[in-house]
Design goal:
It is a single chain. The protein has 4 helices and 4 strands, in the order αββαβαβα. With 117 residues, the protein is an alpha+beta fold. It has one domain. The protein is elongated and about 60 Å long. The chain starts with a helix and ends in a 10-residue tail after the last helix.
Amino acid sequence: MFRSLLISTLLFTGCSKVTYQTSLPQDAVHTHREIFFLYGLIGESEVNLKEYCPFGISSVLQQQDAVDVIINYLTGGLVSPVSVEIRCAKKGAQATFPNVQEKFLAENPTNLFGGEQ
């Protein structure tokens, strides 16, 4: 049984990275971990970007790095952490937006997964 758990953990884990980036210059950086369960299938997380960055965001990085994968592996997939790095825009920064999504993300920093809180 332990062997099958080990094999399934190795098959279902891996590093991943998602980045949302705007053309605003960066100022402060905030990092934290979000915890999910059963290989990330259970759990919900909302990151209120306006709380961290009142002047808008420069970029948001959501990743499962090596430490997160090791935690996932050691717990047999029961705990699946995800690291989030938020880079705030400088106060008064102006940017040109090459597309509609970037403009919306920079001007409406509500939460990482969309919607209002």
